[in-house]
Design goal:
With 932 residues, the chain is mainly beta. The N terminus is likely disordered. It has a 22-stranded antiparallel beta barrel. Strands 22, 23, 26, 27, 32, 33 and 34 form a seven-stranded mixed β-sheet that branches. The protein is 3% helix and 49% strand.
Length: 932
Amino acid sequence: MKTPSFRGGLALLLLALVAVLPVTALAASQNYGRVAGYVYDPTGAPLSEVPLTVSGPALQQPQSRTSGEDGRFEFGTLPPGEGYVLEVNVPGFAPIKRTGITVLLGQATQVDVKLEVFTEAQAVATYEIVEKVNPIINPDSAQMGAVMNAEKAATSPVFTQVQAMPQLVAGVGQGNAPSLRAGLSRYGKFYVDGMDTSDVVDGSISSPMSFYAVENFEVITGGLDAQYNSLGLIENVVSKSGSNKFTYDVTMILSPAWANAKYRGAANQNPNVANYTQNEVPLSETAFYSPLVGVGGPIIKDKLWFYLSGQWNFSQRETPLGEENRRTDTETRLARLKLTWQPTAKDRVSLAFNYDNNAITNQVAQTSATPEAETQIDRGGFFAIVNYDRSITDNVLFQLQTGTTYKDIWQGPMNEDSQDIAHIYNSTTYRNAGALRNEVGNLVTEQRMRYQFDPTLLFKVKNHQMKAGLQVSYLSGEKTAQVIGNSRFNDRNGECNPDDPATFQFCNERIDFYNSEGVQAPLTTEAGDLITGAFFQDRWNVNRYLTLVAGLRADVGRLYGDNDQFITNLVGVGPRLSATYDLFGNRTTLVKAHYGRSNEVGDVFIAQHANPDLLQVRSTFSGGAFADCAPDTVGNSQCSVSGGPSGRFFDKGSHTPPHVDELAFGLHHALSEQSVIGVDLTYRKYSNMWVDEEINRIWDPSGQRVVGYVDGVNHTVVKIHNPDDAWRDYRGMDLWVQGRTGPWDLLANYTLAYSNGTVGDYFDGYGFNPRFKRFFEGPSPEDIRHTMKGSIGYTTRFGLDFGLRFNYRTGAPMWMFQEGTVDRQRVVRSPRGTGHSYNTGNGIPDFNDPAAVSQLRQPSQFLFDIQARYDLNRLVKTNETKMELTLIMFNVLNNSDVTFVQEQYRATNNRFGTATSRRSPMQAELLLRVRN
C-alpha cells in the first residue's frame, strides 16, 4: 500500500528559517487568551501607572504591565490555562493577590482591582485573596461560540476526536466536518496553535491530532474579528506546551465486541437487504481499542519546554449484508511534538510537528460491491508550525506564524495488485472496484499541500488595541486517476466475456479510458491557489461600558489549473463592525451587535474543477462484438465519448466570489460567578455560490429532451461561475447556557432556524438545465428547524462525576426526484423540499397536479450518550498521580431509528421513502487514565 511521502520537507525547512528572521510587522488565528480590567481607588476613581504582575504554570516567566490613564490594563498574550495569579502592590494601599484565574483561548477574562488604603489592621494581612473570576462573560468582543478546556472535553461523552468538539456548540451541525448555520460543511476552518491547517480540497481537518494533547478547544460561530476569513465555523485548538514540572498522561480505551450492542437488520444498505431480519448470519460486532500517551516537562527550566503525545486507534466494525457480515478495519496513528523556547523575557518561539496515518479496509461495505470488489484507503501526512512572538515594548507585539501541511491519499481495490477489469450488473460491482465515490477512476492517488506565512503586529495606543496582519497561503494539489485495466464493463444479468460466445447474452457496454494524450493510461492533473489576505482592526474600549471593534480585510485568490495555467482572480473585501455594551458596568449583562462579511477566494477543489477527466469511450455490444470505437470516432451510433477535456470553462468576466454577510444581536447575562446564559439572533446570506451552467443545449419545455444546440454541435458547454441567483440564507435564534454553577458543568443550547435558497452544494446541478431552475428554490438541505443539544456534567463529593450528552434535531428537507434519460440528471417537478402525493387511482405521484405538492422531511433524530468517571485515588492513595476510571456509553438507548430515507422515485421498482440508514447500535468504552 502506498505510504505518505514527505516532498514538502525542503519548504518546511525554509519556512522554519524564515520564522526567526526580523520581519517587518504585518495575523493568523489567536494562540492566547487575555486578562484585562480596571484599577480603582477606594472612591471608584481610575488609577493610572499602577504596576501589575501576572504569573501561572503555563507561563515560563511572569509578565508585568501598568494601568493606563483610564485605569485599564491588559495582559494580551497569556497561554490558555488555569491557576493564574494577578498581583498588585502599590505603596499606601493594601497589597492584592487574585488567584484561581482561568484564561480561555481567544477570550478576555475580566479582573477588576479596587485598592483599599493600607491600615494598621491590615498590617498582618499581606494579601487579599479573591477567586472565581468569570472567564466566559466577555465584554471585549461580540464573537459567538464557545471555548472548552481539556477538562470539559474529558468529562463530555464524545469520541476522542479533536474535530468532534464543535458539534456541542449552538448553530453547528453534525459530523466531523459540520456545517454552520445552513452553510456548507466545506466552509469550516481548522486551526492548530493558531495556524490554518484546513484541508485544501474539502475544508475538513487536514491532519488529526491526539485528543488529550489539546489544552483549549475554541469554536467560533460568528462575530468574526477581521483576522479571520471564513464562511463557516472556526475550530482553533491550542495544544499543550509542557511546563517546569514533568508531567505524564496515559489513557487506555477499551471497547470490546461483547460490550457493544449488535443489530441483526442491515443498516446503511438497500431496502431489499434490510428486510432480511430472520437470516442465520451471526450478529454484527463492533470493537475499538486505543492507547493515548502524553509527556511533557522542562529541557531547560524557565527557558525550554517540551510536550510529546501519541495516539493509536484500532477500530473493527461489521456490516450485516443479509447473507454475510463484512468487517471494516480502521487503524489511525497520531504523533505530535511541541517545543516552547523563551530565550529572553521579550522573545518566545514554539515549534510543533504533527504526523498522522489512517488506513481503512472494506470502505464500501455495502451490497453494491462484492467482497472481491471492495476498496480501501490509506492516507496520512504531517503539518509543522513555527510561532514566534517578540515583545518590542509593553505596547507593541510582533507575531509570526508559519508552517506547512502535507496530505497523501491512496484509494483503490483491496487487492492493490489486482489487474481484474470491473464488471457491473444488476446494480452490483463484481471482481474489482467499479468507481470510487465522486471519482471517475478506481485507483486514485492525491497529494495536497499548504504553505502558510502569517506575520502580525499588535500595538496599543491609549485605549485602542490595534492589530494589522498579512496572511499568505499557497494551496496545491496533484491527483492521479486511473481505471485498472483501462476498461470497465457494464453488463446485463451476468458477466460478459467478449471472447466466450456463451456469455454474449450478458454483454452490453464496454468503457475504455484514455488520458489527455489519447493513451489508455492514468491521468495526472494539478491545481493551485495563491491567496493573499491583509487586515486591520481596532478594538476601542471607549469606557468601562462600551467596546467597539472595527476592522477591514481584503483577500485575493489567483487560481491555477493543470500545467500552471492561470484560471482567474477572485477578490473580496470584508468589513467588520461590532459593539458590546455592559448594561450595568459590573460585567454581568452584555448587549452585543455585529455585522461582517467573509469572502471565499478559492481552493484546490475549485481550481481542479475545470481540469480534464479521464476520457471515456463507450462501445455498445452488437452482432457478437463490441463496436470498434476510439476517441476520434464520429458518426457511429454505437460509440459515444465523454469526459476528457471537461467541457467546463471559467467565466473570464469579473467574479464576485462566494461570500457571507452576517448580522447578529445578542444578550448575555452571568447567572453566577462562572456561568452565563445568552440569546443570539443571527441572519446570514450566502451569495454567489459556485455553479456549473450548461449554455449550449436547447431543451424542450419538459426539460427531459434536448432539441438542439446553440453552436449546432452535439456536445455540452459548461460555464463555471457564481451568479447572483446562486444563494441561500439563514435566520436563527440560539438560546444557550455555558459554565459551572455549583456541582453542574453546563454547555447546552436550543436553536430555532429557517433556511432557504437555490443551491444545495457547489456544482449540485443548479443551472445544468434551465427548465429546472425554478424547482431548486426552497428550503435548503440544512433547513433544520429545531435543534436541542447539550453536554452536561455533574460532580459529586465522593469522587464520582457524570457526563450527559444529548442531541435532538428535526429532519432535513427531502426532495422527490426522478432520474432523467439525458446524462442521468435529476428530473424534479416541485420546489426543493417538496414532493407529490400519490394518486389514489393509479398509486403513483401525480406530477401534473400542483395541488398535490406536499412538504417532505427526513426523520427527526435523537442521540443520547452518558459517561461516569470515578477518582480511583479514593481507593488507591498516591502522592501526585491521579487515576480515573471512565465508562462511556454512546447511543445508550440503543436507538435504531431511521436516519435517512430514499428520495429517488421510480415508475417501476420504486423505493421512494424506504429506509436506507439507521442509527449505529449502542457502543460502550472503558477508559483508564493515569496522570499527574
